[in-house]
Amino acid sequence: MLRSFIKSARAARRPVLASLALMGLGAFSPALTGAAQAQEVNVYSYRQTFLMEPLFKAFEQESGIKINFLYASKGLLERARAEGMLSPVDVFLTSDFGRLIDAKTMGLTQALQDTQIEANLPAQYRDPDGHWFGLTRRARVIFASKDRVDPADVQTYEDLTKPEFKGQICIRSGLHSYNIGLFAAMIASQGAETTEAWLQGLKGNLARRPQGNDRAQVKAIKEGECSLAIGNTYYMGKMLNNPEQVAWAESVNMIFPNQDDRGTHVNVSGMALAKHAPNREQAIAFMRFLLSPKAQAIYSSENYEYPVNPAVEPSELLTSWGAFKAEKLDLADMAAQRAAASKMVEKLRFNN
Ligand SMILES: [Fe+2]
Predict the structure, then answer these.
(1) What is the maximal distance between C-alpha atoms in the chain?
(2) pTM
């Protein structure tokens, strides 16, 4: 049986400490470590519960190892740090590899050299020291109104700053990790000055202050509030499969920017083995599973994410969107610009 520390999205907004207290700490007794390891894995997840449940269930069925998970949108690394050696966490899951790099820097991870994992994951998507591993890729694309925008006019991120798009662009907060990732990548490839000028131009073309999530921007296009937005590809899959949102999805073209030059920005979700993982062996089995063809296919068909395992084809829907060129940047180089990107956003007041 799948066990959750936090069962509902509503509960997830409670302070994290309270949620663990709700569950009791029995499952995490340090007595479970050592020779007689429990057949379970404790996961701290920045990825939402509904996204991970199909994967947890498939793993439990295959291995007989139970997954206990704690979801929160923030604070999990800090929590693990505070728990120190007695932390129950075995595996961290994040929606962005930047947080995995933070986890390594904070000393919360351990190195893992595993031939099975490495066979399924190209070197560009993992830490050279084995402290973290990518799981899926998500492209950050442009959504353009079918009625009001000719896709030929918006072929690059840079095109979004054209004067003709004044008052036409919707976007979520500049400080959200997806946007910080995009801006940091641009700093890494184009330099800080060029990126700041671009961001200024983008701000000048906004239809409204940054707000909402990625899907809210597409809704705003459907409702005529704006004509262009930036968002992640898997939200297109989710909208197309949601009766209330399918009309939003159908009101836009999805454009993979910068195909003729550096490629589209891609963000990478991933995992890391916790430094003091009490169930290390089971955790490694779980990590191997997440990169297996079976799990990678679930990520693609259920979550609309691109597999990182090169042996796994994207799902039919993703394939129908066509192949695209992704930007080729070293993940650590990109991560190194995140602080500069955040500062830039704050300076330009691009947060909300
Ligand atoms: Fe997301």
Answers:
(1) 67
(2) 0.86
